[in-house]
Amino acid sequence: MLFMLAIISLLSDQVFLTPVQNNALFQYINDHQSEYIQRLKNWVAIESDSSDPSKRDQVQLMMEMTKDYILKMGGHVEMAEIGEQEYSPGIKLPLPPVILAQIGNDTNKPTVCFYGHMDVQPAKKEDGWKTEPYTLVEENGNLFGRGTSDDKGQILALLHGVESLKKIGLPVNVKFVIEGMEEVGSQGLEKLVEDKKNTFFSDVDYIVVTDTPWLSKKPGITYGARGNCYFYLEVEGARRDLHSGGFGGTVYEAMSDLIYLLGQLADVKGKILIPGIYDDVLPLTEQEKELYKNLEFNLDDLKADTGAKQFLHDTKEEILMYRWRYPSLSIHGIEGAFSGSGTKTVIPAKVIAKFSIRQVPNMNPSVVEKQVTDYLESKFSERKSPNKIKVTMVIGAQPWLANMNDPLYVAAQKAVKKVFNTDADMIRAGGTIPIAKSFEEILGKTVMLLGIGGPEDAPHGQNEKISKHNYIEGTKLYGSFLQEIANAWP
Ligand code: MN
Ligand code: MN
Description:
490 residues; alpha+beta; Aminopeptidase; Alpha-Beta Plaits; 3 domains; six-stranded mixed beta sheet; four-stranded antiparallel beta sheet; 14 helices; 21% strand; globular; binds manganese (II) ion
């Protein structure tokens, strides 16, 4: 009988250990919801718009408030100075310090380092907001206000998750890198990470970026992003702008050459015509193909949202693959071309087209640069125009792709399952996330993007919001994720 009881208690320990832990965590978070929303309200009220020099003191204040809160949680905080910003020639502004914080330093535990930002995009009521952008308003289960989704709400959910976990026993060491200049290009951050590689970052095992949306209402974990090779194509014809009455029919026109060349870049279905451009694209594996099947993504919603009658591809899978794992080419504009209203009979002397290629693993920007330049030069020489062309690649941001079988990803998937009772969507970003690639390259650690933004949060637009569900359940997600990371630690 005793023997039986011993077995039962042993079994029950094993079966119930994790749920009991989580009930305590979830219960604690549920009990503190209104406090979490109040804190978001206080943080949203700070106009930490990093693009506006007159608001720089607000960004500084926001960094101080964040520091104070981490100190209150029992953390250690360093405010790392990163110098000044040359805002415009002769005008220098102080860059807000970057928070480098730590909670726990047990060498037997893994150390997870989170990244996020406290600055926001500009917002004014007259831009078309229904409510005051810097006043948090709760309506129909949503929390409206600038920064609720990008990124104050996500960082607060993380901090609250860690704080809750601390009450029942923090099973990991946690570090935070929180900056105040993300919305204007993270100036000084990459250098700071390099400088601190052997100090602050030396014991970091994993990097998690807390600044991303999901693809749908289903939680998403982001494991890749496309890069960007941005080109200028310049055609120079006459010494000055000419009148078409006097010179139309006389000169080789720069604009005609440019339009011809732009027309050679891709076909009507978006296929890039530059030889070799697809050579280094990673082949699609069966395992990867499977992932796309379960993604929740509605093409009709996308049509309604964009107003597009038809897309380049017919299925959800193809649309997402061409957004995430294949390169694309877009033409953005022409500098020097007449673009005003009305009629003007000018022949522009010099025009510069702007186009970019979103490139993917394992494409290399310097190879792309050569392929594009060689192709345009050969197409131009076939045309036998006496004008001059110049191809320049002005941005060469690399793509990023993580190994989603890494324990970091497995832990996040388990946490999603536990909190939301569904499998996570494994997603990528069609745009570029330079910080993910920088962290990976400089520190050599696995990087993951685990955010809690919803697909309709409008992070840079009017009426930015986060749903209360995402905010509160997201808090549980961060707490559970850290428990799972600890469970997987050898
Ligand atoms: Mn952001
Ligand atoms: Mn943003």
